[in-house]
Queue: 2 jobs
Job 1
Amino acid sequence: MTSPISDSENWQPSELERRRRAERQRKTQKNVLIAGISSVLVLGTFSIILVNSPGWISLRDTFFKWAYGVEVLPKVILGFTTNITLTLIAGSSVALLGLLLALVRTSRSPALTPFRFLATIYVDVFRGIPMILVILLIGFGIPALQIPGVTNEVLILGTIAVIITYTAYVAEVLRSGILTVHPSQRAAARSLGLSHFQTLRHVVLPQAIKRVTPPLLNDLVALIKDTGLISILGVTDAVRAAQIQTAKSFNYTPYVMAALLFLAVTIPLTRYTDRILRRSMERQNAQGLT
Amino acid sequence: MTSPISDSENWQPSELERRRRAERQRKTQKNVLIAGISSVLVLGTFSIILVNSPGWISLRDTFFKWAYGVEVLPKVILGFTTNITLTLIAGSSVALLGLLLALVRTSRSPALTPFRFLATIYVDVFRGIPMILVILLIGFGIPALQIPGVTNEVLILGTIAVIITYTAYVAEVLRSGILTVHPSQRAAARSLGLSHFQTLRHVVLPQAIKRVTPPLLNDLVALIKDTGLISILGVTDAVRAAQIQTAKSFNYTPYVMAALLFLAVTIPLTRYTDRILRRSMERQNAQGLT
Amino acid sequence: SSSSEDAAAPAEGCVAGELATVEAGALIIATGEPAYYPWVIDDAPESGQGFEAAIAYAVAEKLGYGKDAVKWIRSTFDGAIAPGPKDFDFNLQQYSITTERAEVVDFSSPYYKANQAIVSFKGSKLDGVTDLAGITAAGAKLGAAVSTTSLDVIESQLGLKASVFNDNAGGVTALKNKQIDGLVVDLPTAFYLSAVEIDNGIIVGQIDGSDAGDSGFGLLLAKDSPITGCVTDAVDALTSDGTIAAITQEWLANTAGAPVLK
Amino acid sequence: MSLSPSALLSVRDLKKTFGSEVVLDGISFEVPVHTATVFIGASGSGKSTLLRALNLLEQVDDGVIELDGEEITAVDIDPDQVRRKLGMVFQAFNLFPHMSVLENITLSPIKVHGLTRDEANERALSLLERFGLREKADQYPDRLSGGQQQRVAIIRALARNPRLLLLDEITSALDPVLVNEVLLTVRELKEEGMTMVIATHEMGFAKQVADQLCYLHGGKIVESGRASDVIDRPKEPETQEFLARVHSAGRL
Amino acid sequence: MSLSPSALLSVRDLKKTFGSEVVLDGISFEVPVHTATVFIGASGSGKSTLLRALNLLEQVDDGVIELDGEEITAVDIDPDQVRRKLGMVFQAFNLFPHMSVLENITLSPIKVHGLTRDEANERALSLLERFGLREKADQYPDRLSGGQQQRVAIIRALARNPRLLLLDEITSALDPVLVNEVLLTVRELKEEGMTMVIATHEMGFAKQVADQLCYLHGGKIVESGRASDVIDRPKEPETQEFLARVHSAGRL
Ligand SMILES: Nc1ncnc2c1ncn2[C@@H]1O[C@H](COP(=O)(O)OP(=O)(O)OP(=O)(O)O)[C@@H](O)[C@H]1O
Ligand SMILES: Nc1ncnc2c1ncn2[C@@H]1O[C@H](COP(=O)(O)OP(=O)(O)OP(=O)(O)O)[C@@H](O)[C@H]1O
Ligand SMILES: [Mg+2]
Ligand SMILES: [Mg+2]
């Protein structure tokens, strides 16, 4: 139907097209330059105002005292391992439970009405109340009950509390993803003989999850940070470690070190996921000019 | 083409169909019953274990001492007004700025590359670092600079910090919504002569926002709670008010009161939005059996 | 003033070194993290340096636990007050004894009664104020850390609305930024802060916090702990034999002399 | 309730409404094995709805559908089991945008019918070859032309070797040469034992492929019979009028 | 570089590739005002791509498109201004699922062409009436049959009164009676002064509507001329072969 490339392998753009491309490139370059320069100007102005303000030195010493930062870094890193461990454990549980909840909430079967009702209440309640209360209730409340055989290990209980809260958030994100998959996709899958579960597995979820990857990453990044909330139970995470140091020294650099640690994990994660996502979208979509 | 309803206004379902409907109803009822009973059983068992555990009374007195809760409620409500006020102010700014950022990040124009780059860095950084650090940096850092004419009012600075952080989150949610709108929709809108902006306004965003409403609500609910983080600057929100009371009495009921206040706002909000969303989806989509 | 009346254990039952502690043969003492100067020096309670560290070892000794039998742990504020079993025998981090709190936990008799003091800086609204009325008149904005008696002093005694911070670090920063005019802390801390942390720091004056229901710092124990009686007895004994006075003299001597605001 | 011996599909008194609109109003027909039953009728007359109902994608409001003598409209039927025997090509194709052409085609053979990936690929590639799409195997549906997408949808249904094929306007996006190719395919399939229900607007195609032609109007099958009879010698006034207008439009 | 006096659209040496696939390989043609130019060709021959390129929805790799004497492929052109003069019906309809039929149709007249809502509604409703869709005005696209959706897409383009209409397979989902209705509409529009570029697989439709017929093959316009000439007396061997196969398929 269409000619293979070999036909026109030695095709050269016309004079006109060459001019057009050059002009397009020139225009783009000009615009990029304008955008770039204006960005640099704005940021530069801010930096200059910052550095020349009367309090800059004192601010720098309070927040960015690198020598001190390096000194406390090992302690903050030690705390950070708590964040990472909890994130790995909580993250996978949250993914599973959140998915389950999202599936229940998006199911249409009338038989599941009671579960749907409970799932809705669950999400509304655990999303709505401050996580600190959930952590207190689980982390201090459960041991206080003194039920035989139930752990009173704060790490475990704290992790459970984190899972409970984040499951509510992630369930909503996944639910929104599932709802965006057009019903005709399910119809097609079912008409091919795929079971309800297979339809979810192969048709609905792959599309749904791809679509909500940015908000899912939001929640993952927030989770890494929020696992630290269990420090009220006496566990030391990166931020708590920083807080301890700051409380001693009245200097905020430890917080900055903690932030750098977080970024060291989250930025590569985000960039990597984003690239995968963009590739898959580029492969999938026809890209016009709009 | 098809007969109007009048044709068959006096149509009665056949004997078979009546049996089928009855059976379907019976089956549904049975399943609902099973689901309902099993839910009640599970929840009931948990409650019984809870109430009969050795520490239940002490737990109840510590977390659910209603008389005390009512006593401190006015103070918690006073703190809660801070959450609400900040949410209203921050929420609208976040919506605007988040949208702007999302639009920059989803734009394809090569001229915007520098802005896209900056927007990506912005999101990565401010999403990744603990909000507490942003609040400290803005709330304590800016006044420390002693730049003439710049406020050192903690409420304003704290709100700015909250806006900065949440903008990053909301931008990602909106970006994901925008990406789910199929390019052919833009093509159709542009081919109708709509400008880039009109296309966004009338075609892309209405679909995008509807699709990400659940994660947007996640962020709104989280925002209501997280506005409280500016309490590290010395402002009293609902959770801080509860904490102050708890520190006095060593009783956690104030936290529970705070949680109830949050729920009193977030649940109606969520239910209402959900209903609107469901209605619009029902109107829009053909609903098959799958 | 002790809340141990309702504690079951009679003082006579205190066999030295063999109390019904969390871990038999050892005494687990909790404090905050970090523990502040001058209560604990260098955040190292094990050294026995600092007022509360010294008190802890003195009480331990009275109870029949040598230096080696004492184990230190750190607890958060919430960890100390949460219901249910505790992982420490007693906890000291400047917990003020109030009747309300005593419904939830046990306290020993007080081992120290600190006045509250207002820290500020030269040239602030509060510089030169000499009485309580002057503070209100100055329209001053006062701050305090959460879960301290200082907060009660501002709110119930001065009738002002306080800016409440997570810890003293936050309050100090706000003070340096002039976002508040004064920070209320207990007197020993006030001396430390005004001398070390705040440029041109001053102590405006001290306030007797008793009116806010403060009856001094006590050792905090689990509700109905079997050793509350013994610990109270030990504190009482240390008070009467002058040990506590000596420790106070050693660690808090230079904290007298701020004008009292009335 | 018995079925004529050779009928694979038997529909009785089918009724379907959308809100206040009665789309199917007492549809009855039988489809003998190895035959093609074609539905014609105006746009909006309910052809697609009927095919969706046969595939249990719409819950009917009354009536019975029997497949292989089994009432598939019964309440306790397992639709997955029913659909294993059915293949459907949707009017809007409904390809899976996140899967390549090959993955679209092999999904069901592998997951539902238990073929190995190699077997499924082989079969898929030979069908792609036949419909001139061999080189698009790894392309994604969004990047195909309309006719290419339609062919993939047809191949996806064929690759499963169903007992009964439900084909909704499968020639709408095809060029005339391809229409002919599809026509030949349909005939071959019949010979191989396939049974089909087809909805179409193409009178020529209908005439050439139909063993039984049904004219759908006002929610009812107004007339049915051999294709040449219905088209060339319609009996009912509605059919006569429709075909007269088709004629006058020069489309026969 | 000048344009023949009556040509509204003039295309010269248009080239478009997707990756390694050359889809349009030096396309040149002119469309005089008040005429319809029809493109036929096998599935995948590039008809849709060409129409999208004319609407500036695809960036061409070489060549020139002139509309009203203005080079719209120029770098500094404002595509919004160009598209105000153009109307397009997409092969896949591309209706807005979040808007009712009426809103779909009136969006552009109100937002782009500045009509009041009442004026726009009136015009939309009369067009809906004409295409038998009056009672679907408040329905949402997902709930329409294929043919109904296609009619809405046509109406949406017509409602804007463009100078040049680009119509991609606008009869594929329509029943024969409606095809005729569209045919009449196209003729009327031409009389009212509209110019059109049409891609279609329906040889009958092409023959009846085309002032100029172009056969697209291998990325090139192999043959063009009056419809009756090209279809009944094709000169080029490729055209002859294609039409022969169409003939033998009984589709002419
Ligand atoms: N989900 C739905 N909700 C409401 N009405 C619907 C729905 N689906 C279809 N309809 C209506 O039912 C009627 C029959 O639609 P159907 O798609 O079966 O027609 P069709 O015969 O396939 O038409 P075409 O030839 O145009 O594809 C139409 O009037 C349509 O608007
Ligand atoms: N975005 C894209 N990316 C890659 N290839 C594409 C893209 N869009 C179209 N093609 C390819 O370009 C060729 C021409 O496609 P086009 O849609 O123009 O064909 P067509 O003539 O309209 O066919 P049909 O009659 O089937 O609609 C096809 O081979 C198609 O696969
Ligand atoms: Mg249809
Ligand atoms: Mg096409």
Job 2
Amino acid sequence: MKLILAIIKPFKLDEVREALTGLGIAGMTVTEVKGFGRQKGQTEIYRGAEYATNMVPKVKIELVCDDALAPRVVETLQQSAGTGSIGDGKIFVLDVGQAVRIRTGETGEAAL
Amino acid sequence: MKLILAIIKPFKLDEVREALTGLGIAGMTVTEVKGFGRQKGQTEIYRGAEYATNMVPKVKIELVCDDALAPRVVETLQQSAGTGSIGDGKIFVLDVGQAVRIRTGETGEAAL
Amino acid sequence: MKLILAIIKPFKLDEVREALTGLGIAGMTVTEVKGFGRQKGQTEIYRGAEYATNMVPKVKIELVCDDALAPRVVETLQQSAGTGSIGDGKIFVLDVGQAVRIRTGETGEAAL
Amino acid sequence: MKGDNMTFANKLAASAGAAGLALFAALPAWAQEAAETPTIDTGDTAWMLTSTVLVLAMILPGLALFYGGLLRTKNMLSMLTHVLAVTCVAMLVWVSWGYSIAFTEAGPFFGDLSNLFLKNVTADSISGTIPEYVFISFQMTFAAITCALVVGSLAERVKFAGLMVFAVIWLTIVYFPLAHMVWSAGGFFFEKGALDFAGGTVVHINAGVSGLVGCLILGKRIGYLKEVLAPHSLTMTFIGTGLLWVGWFGFNAGSALGAGSGAGLAMINTLTATAAAAVAWMVAEKVAGHKPSLLGGCSGVIAGLVAITPAAGFAGPFGAIVLGAVASVIAYLFVTVAKPKLGFDDTADVFGIHGVAGIVGSIGVAFTNAPGFGGPGAADYAIGAQLGTQLFATGVAVLWAAVGSGIAFTVAKLVTGLRVSEEVEREGLDLGEHGERAYNY
Amino acid sequence: MKGDNMTFANKLAASAGAAGLALFAALPAWAQEAAETPTIDTGDTAWMLTSTVLVLAMILPGLALFYGGLLRTKNMLSMLTHVLAVTCVAMLVWVSWGYSIAFTEAGPFFGDLSNLFLKNVTADSISGTIPEYVFISFQMTFAAITCALVVGSLAERVKFAGLMVFAVIWLTIVYFPLAHMVWSAGGFFFEKGALDFAGGTVVHINAGVSGLVGCLILGKRIGYLKEVLAPHSLTMTFIGTGLLWVGWFGFNAGSALGAGSGAGLAMINTLTATAAAAVAWMVAEKVAGHKPSLLGGCSGVIAGLVAITPAAGFAGPFGAIVLGAVASVIAYLFVTVAKPKLGFDDTADVFGIHGVAGIVGSIGVAFTNAPGFGGPGAADYAIGAQLGTQLFATGVAVLWAAVGSGIAFTVAKLVTGLRVSEEVEREGLDLGEHGERAYNY
Amino acid sequence: MKGDNMTFANKLAASAGAAGLALFAALPAWAQEAAETPTIDTGDTAWMLTSTVLVLAMILPGLALFYGGLLRTKNMLSMLTHVLAVTCVAMLVWVSWGYSIAFTEAGPFFGDLSNLFLKNVTADSISGTIPEYVFISFQMTFAAITCALVVGSLAERVKFAGLMVFAVIWLTIVYFPLAHMVWSAGGFFFEKGALDFAGGTVVHINAGVSGLVGCLILGKRIGYLKEVLAPHSLTMTFIGTGLLWVGWFGFNAGSALGAGSGAGLAMINTLTATAAAAVAWMVAEKVAGHKPSLLGGCSGVIAGLVAITPAAGFAGPFGAIVLGAVASVIAYLFVTVAKPKLGFDDTADVFGIHGVAGIVGSIGVAFTNAPGFGGPGAADYAIGAQLGTQLFATGVAVLWAAVGSGIAFTVAKLVTGLRVSEEVEREGLDLGEHGERAYNY
Ligand SMILES: Nc1ncnc2c1ncn2[C@@H]1O[C@H](COP(=O)(O)OP(=O)(O)O)[C@@H](O)[C@H]1O
Ligand SMILES: Nc1ncnc2c1ncn2[C@@H]1O[C@H](COP(=O)(O)OP(=O)(O)O)[C@@H](O)[C@H]1O
Ligand SMILES: Nc1ncnc2c1ncn2[C@@H]1O[C@H](COP(=O)(O)OP(=O)(O)O)[C@@H](O)[C@H]1O
């Protein structure tokens, strides 16, 4: 199994989720994060104090799927999350040794 | 070493933490996340505008332990986090190459 | 490639980011988390109800880099995040199978 | 100049006598006295000072929070900024030329510029039984809140600069004339005998219609009816609701222009109508198969307040209850059933609540004023005739607001573009237009 | 009917004379005048209009925020909804039959139904020196806030429907009779000469005891004394505290029913008692080995306000300081030491603060009124006798509230279940009962 | 009785001609009159009761939110606690010895202790046309807010205990004497004929300068000019701004001590000056190449309110506009250009706004009062002479505040350390000093 970790633009989340559901993905976990990268944040000024925020709000998706599906998940993610402009984000793929569904105790791909 | 990544129901956190402490686990890291899965969210209506949230609040636990302990951690997690109802969550296990305690520079299992 | 996962004290974030930028790291992703470990939280009392919070606010950094750079990243992290006092946090290193830049579709180290 | 307002007070009393309204009949001593030797009544003045303060509290922080809470986090601060800026601009315009246009006696639709920059007023000027400066201040807050009400329709996409241009034009060609028609001696509605105790036409119908025109000209928000646009803080909306209700006593009971029985009547009606409207909205939700909601209760509160505004002194407490409940249910149906079908994007439902409940109130007052329905109307009060007058006045107000605001928005659009770029809209107006965030937790 | 209130005013003055209270002695002209030719005093009316608005501000947004901030995020919105709905229902019930039961002169415990739907009142009716509609409005807000106070004990688990059923019954069988006993001519306490300036028994002891009964009937929250139930926003609780203090001047100084020396005395006492109580609570925390806290300060503010309520016109500023400080420390000890031992789950400490400080105030007024302690009592004022009266009145109020609220909660439980399901309680009442979230950041 | 106020108003105008002032000249007449037939005017009393409540609302929740919103989340609660505690302590000190020092007629700089613990005051005492207890309460809130204003400079690092020590000393040696100089018969500035309608010197210059001294003694916050110290909630700051503006009418129009034309003039000026100042700040931002911001608008509001405070009854509405705009731009330049260069860390810009705009107002009033600029000054009013007096009074106030607050802070530092440990500062004062969090979402 693979853990697919994608960092995307927040407003793309709905689109991405729909695209992945289309692939048959039944679950994923989403976290609000702050990204530091090439994309620069807005400058904020409060009564003359200027703060150039280099952190941009992003959304992180964590999704475990079986090895076979992984390439298509990555591809779908890349297509649905992309806007073509800087800061679109990254996808990372890691190996997962084991998966368990807490409710039933099922393990492996059955747990997904 | 293993990274154990568990997504559970928020109100189960205290119980889970206690159960893990019982196993001798000295540390873990917790994040508030939103889960998308079989469990459906509540429908919210604001002045006629209906939003069926398919995101459910969950808590993610990240915990690194030595290989030997991992199976018992997974088991304990599964038991203490389970309610038997849909949406109880998942446990994923990944391999960790290295661990460092920042304060002391200790590495490997000594760092945990 | 490696995923370097560091849990640090929140007020150290700026310093750490600067140190990593010095290494040539161009991106990372930051999450607010709560840590459970040896460091104990403050006791809060609200109208007589006492809560000893064992969760301490921490910041988690996720950073993917190529294998060669990883040791130096870990080292830099350890130095810049350390204060020498309890609760400084941990660094974990995991293997990453693949990386993709959503915007361009570049993969591997070119995606970082 | 003092004469103007004396006349205003007299006309009020006179027309009240003519139309057989109990309200002013209840204050004959006051009216007479005022006509003879204009002196300040400290009790009336105390109440009008308080009322002015209360109306300001409705705007800042009241209305700004009510609207702001309904928006997404990223646009909260822009709403607060819009309300603040519009309020301040309206105040400056009011003392510069607004008061002159609204309250000099020149024609049925406009005053003239003879009192530009308040040049005929001094600290000693008296209007009725209160210092004229207090009257001007009280009316100033009305101009400000009406303009601020419109902002709710435009939220999450209107450009700050465009809003400022709109405000100045709209106040001048829409609000001041309508205020003149309703409240000035010689005003069009005033002379027709239309009932409007505290500004149902000038304020609520006007703001509702102008907001509708504005959101049509602006177009829908990105993601409207597609993405989740849930309110970022109903807590803030609730605080706003509370402050609006609290402040509305300045608005309604203050419109009696003194601390007498008229104010007392307006107060109790502003309590009962509102309570009934809040309950009615939540019951309507339940009947429609949903859960009774906080935003429903708050919307009901506003609908009730709006509906009772024209009728506050022209109803009994139980007439007010019926009026509030009816207006609330109609507004509920409009907002939840009609609006999604019509498909326009009135962000904070300014038309759906202020416009709709305002129209219900403006028509309903013909009934609530009747003694048969517990109203203070005279024994020979004729519902039918009054209903005609009310329909006519309501229609004129709707038309005037629609045409005038169309002009104002169009000019603002030509000059500034009126709407922010897609990028700013997505990122949020807070950062894009003001370079600040509402929250940095 | 107008007679009723005239009598009310007279009785007030009379009993004041009898008991030798300086307060009313200071207003003899007013009392006489009122008895002779009932006319409106615009100054008194201005203040009573303002006072009514202030008490409304105590409820919305004041009390709702004060309580809501103490809850967990997931129940914030339900508290706001409860307070809003209870307030509106109380208002409608008040004008329908409440005012009649409370303020017609039929017997010592109840009025009668002769003034149902305010049928004897018109805009011209006068009560004392103010329009009767203003008096009714002022008293309306008292009924509403008392009922809303009870909600704090039930928070995080009470069912919305159950609360509504409770409110209607409880107002009818508990609040209106108690209001009659204390404030109506011929009322039980009134005739006994019990001192209660602004409603220590009717409002605070009553709400505190009813809340206690309610939380006992409801049972504890899931996780009480086990999980972290920390306040989700002390910022909101602070805003509520500020608004409660601000609004309380309408409550206390407004209870003088005019803008004279009685209001002035009530005002300064409502400042000094409260300041002392806030400081006392924080000092008590320090002495107990803890850090002085914001919630402590806020709790002290409320304890002080509650304690001074019955005594606002029956104390000097330094008697008020002592009363506030004593009540605050006793409430502190109750809430932090006694309550955890007793183990009941009064979510917002309605009994611990309103009940306890209310009882301290209701008894303490026997002392503060004494000229020896700087109070306005006459030279021959007898502390002992008054103390007996106060203890008796307090006891009756506690009993009446306990029995009546027991009935009201039991009926509500039979009809609706009163408590939400475990699932809803866990997920939060906001989503489960109202389908909304307080915050969507 | 109503006659009183006529006379009061007349005297105001008349004596204004004589001494070229309005306010203070009015006070001796008031003292005299009071000696003759002191009776209560219910209208004036109603307004002064209301004004007192309004000033309290400025502090709680107003000022606390205004400041608190500007801080980081971890220090929010400490600000709320500081403002609450300082307010309560100031109230207790005021009735104990403050009123005596400020308002007994002993010398030009101090009163004496003859009225300690208000021993000469009863509920029947009258001051002008209002109960003396009302006057004492009104002035009490002035003492409290001034002390609370200082807190803004010290935020995010001052120790709670240190603040309490400072407050008691500073009120005694700085505030009470300055209040005596300005407002008491025989007071130093009072006799010199300095114009200060509502406390520009006593309140704003004083708080601004004291805050500056305080933040210099405390030192900069860790991370100042290095880390991101962005406001955690401009929403809260906005709510505070709204409540400050709303409450300021109690402050300014209340300083007329009655509900007459003086209050009316103060009200309209407090509207126009503030509106102009808010707009001016945002325009200044635009001109400087930045986006017009909410915090800019809010800062402008406060600058305008501060500037008009001394001039509220000594300006026409358009003089007020100019004064507000000028003060706002100067404060803007100070805060954004001068302050970063000077490098001191005045957390909430108490000096930059209250100090700077207070000085501008205190000097500017010499101009706005001139009839040539639309002010109410007499025909023979001499700007030059008055300007000299104003400069002198301003200078003395600055000096007195600087020296006195230097002493108070130094003593507080010796006794308590004044500043929290580095660890507490990093973790936040909320947990470190009070053991609570402002938010537990
Ligand atoms: N090496 C990295 N490790 C982890 N996250 C990264 C890394 N580089 C970028 N990111 C994440 O991806 C986001 C987008 O990266 P950025 O460099 O701004 O643009 P792009 O994806 O178009 O190259 C960043 O905000 C950050 O959250
Ligand atoms: N494939 C997946 N990858 C990552 N997280 C998942 C995945 N499937 C489910 N989850 C997480 O687990 C939670 C519970 O899953 P769900 O399908 O609702 O119920 P159950 O765990 O009972 O099967 C989800 O809310 C989501 O956070
Ligand atoms: N085994 C673990 N797995 C995951 N995170 C851990 C683990 N142990 C500690 N942490 C994280 O590291 C933080 C610091 O650990 P702690 O034991 O308090 O101090 P130290 O790092 O000095 O040993 C914790 O708050 C937690 O977030």
